[in-house]
């Protein structure tokens, strides 16, 4: 709570004590106060409540930096925001440690960072962590894998089930094969074991 002779004065007192600008706070007027008779009798100060606005993206970035530091990794983080999508580009000589086996570490950290961001947000925010261009490299390798497994499914005339992947990686595989009219792709199972299946549309009968 902050007080002053007027709401404006109480506001300035609060901003000064918090070291913030007016656009960084949420202001609620508790009592507008009274000047009193002749400015003396029944005088009552104005009372306001002031809270710092929470920047979801900033909270997420601070959390991410803290976790990376606690992992013993030195990294530079650059934030790239577009609408509700926020990408954190991470540059580090220890990127392999941050990525983990098959992206397991970075995927887990991405999920946790997203939970932090959305805890303070009034709308859903999508977080993407991209250490040393890993996401682009992973996308390329998944697209190559999709082509190979589609060919395998057609050759064997049987469905091929992939290992569990997160929704973003399954989407890459779906999109890589969407124009292939000889197969269909779909996901089965529940998280974290949900995985993609590639299946021929028409199974050719073997000649007897």
From TrEMBL:
Keywords per UniProt: Cell shape, Cell wall biogenesis/degradation, Chaperone, Cytoplasm, RNA-binding
GO biological process terms held by the UniProt record: cell wall organization; peptidoglycan biosynthetic process; regulation of cell shape
SUPFAM superfamilies: R3H domain
Top-level lineage group: Bacteria
CC terms in the record's Gene Ontology section: cytoplasm
Chief location: cytoplasm
Subcellular location: Cytoplasm
GO molecular function: RNA binding
Keyword Chaperone listed: yes
InterPro entries, A to Z: Jag_KH, Jag_N_dom_sf, KH_dom-like_a/b, KhpB, KhpB_N, R3H_dom, R3H_dom_sf, R3H_KhpB
Domain R3H, first and last residues per copy: 136-202
Family matches, as Pfam families: Jag_N, KH_KhpA-B, R3H
Role this protein plays: A probable RNA chaperone. Forms a complex with KhpA which binds to cellular RNA and controls its expression. Plays a role in peptidoglycan (PG) homeostasis and cell length regulation.
Assembly and binders: Forms a complex with KhpA.
Recorded domain comment: Has an N-terminal Jag-N domain and 2 RNA-binding domains (KH and R3H).
Family recorded in the similarity comment: Belongs to the KhpB RNA-binding protein family.
Protein name: RNA-binding protein KhpB
Native species: Priestia koreensis
């Amino acid at each position: 709570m902050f007080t002053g002779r007027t709401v404006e004065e109480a506001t300035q007192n609060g901003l000064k004590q918090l070291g913030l600008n007016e656009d960084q706070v949420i202001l609620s007027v508790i009592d507008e106060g009274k000047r009193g008779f002749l400015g003396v009798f029944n005088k009552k100060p104005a009372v306001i409540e002031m809270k710092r606005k929470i920047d979801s993206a900033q909270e997420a970035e601070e959390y991410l930096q803290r976790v990376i530091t606690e992992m013993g990794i030195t990294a530079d983080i650059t934030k790239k925001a577009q609408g509700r999508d926020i990408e954190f580009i991470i540059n580090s000589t220890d990127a392999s440690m941050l990525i983990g086996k098959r992206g397991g570490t970075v995927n887990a950290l991405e999920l946790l960072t997203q939970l932090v961001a959305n805890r303070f947000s009034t709308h859903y925010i999508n977080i993407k962590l991209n250490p040393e261009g890993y996401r682009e490299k992973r996308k390329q390798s998944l697209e190559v894998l999709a082509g190979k497994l589609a060919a395998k499914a057609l050759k064997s005339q049987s469905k091929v089930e992939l290992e569990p992947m997160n929704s973003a990686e399954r989407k890459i595989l779906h999109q890589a094969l969407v124009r292939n009219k000889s197969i269909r792709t779909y996901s089965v199972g529940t998280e974290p074991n949900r995985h993609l299946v590639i299946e021929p549309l028409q199974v050719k009968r073997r000649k007897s």
